[in-house]
């Protein structure tokens, strides 16, 4: 299960003072439940799976789709934050950095 929130900034005297939740989305298996004022988002949008890097759509796997949507859907005025994930993807494995022996510029 994945729960995510659409958030908008809040302002005080013209300055960003925080954010507020405008919509909560819950994905479990292939089902998606949406509550709130921002319900008009593209549910047919293809996003990248955070596990495989392959394109995924809502009908394939709602949980993986919502994780990918949270990465793809970021604007200054509306963004998505994952607040609960019962099976988060593991961190990618990377090779350790190697020290350069010669400088790039001479």
- For the biggest β-sheet, the strand order reads 3-2-1-6
- What characterizes the major β-sheet? 4 strands, antiparallel
Low-confidence stretches: none
Work out the helix count.
Answer: 1
Query: On the 0-100 scale, what is the average pLDDT?
Result: 89
* Global Rg: 18 Å
**β-strand number:** 6
Which structural class is indicated by helix and strand composition? mainly beta
Task: Give me the strand/helix succession.
Answer: EEEEEHE
The 3D shape can be described as: flat
Whole-number count of domains: 1
Main attributes?
single chain; 106 residues; mainly beta; four-stranded antiparallel beta sheet; two-stranded antiparallel ribbon
Question: Can you put this structure into words, describing what you see?
Answer:
- The chain has one domain.
- The chain has one helix and six strands.
- It has one helix at about 60-70, and strands at about 1-10, 15-30, 30-35, 45-50, 55, 80-85.
- The strands form two sheets. A four-stranded antiparallel sheet has the order 3-2-1-6, covered by helices on one side.
- A hairpin with a 2-residue loop joins strand 1 and strand 2 (about 15-30).
- The longest helix has 11 residues, at about 60-70.
Topology diagram in text:
Elements lengths: L1 E11 L2 E14 L2 E6 L10 E2 L6 E2 L5 H11 L6 E7 L21
Antiparallel strand pairs: 1-2, 1-6, 2-3, 4-5
Short description:
With 106 residues, the protein is mainly beta. The chain is built from 1 helix and 6 strands, in the order E-E-E-E-E-H-E. Helices cover 10% and strands 40% of the residues.
């Amino acid at each position: 299960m994945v729960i995510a929130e659409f958030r908008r900034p809040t302002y005080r005297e013209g300055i960003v003072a925080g954010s507020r939740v405008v919509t909560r989305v819950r994905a479990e298996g292939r089902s998606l439940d949406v509550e709130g004022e921002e319900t008009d988002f593209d549910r047919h949008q293809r996003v990248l799976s955070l596990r495989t890097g392959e394109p995924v759509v809502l009908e394939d796997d709602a949980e993986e789709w919502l994780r990918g949507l949270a990465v793809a859907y970021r604007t200054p005025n509306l963004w998505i934050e994952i607040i609960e994930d019962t099976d988060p993807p593991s961190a990618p494995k990377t090779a350790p950095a190697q020290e350069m022996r010669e400088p790039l510029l001479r």
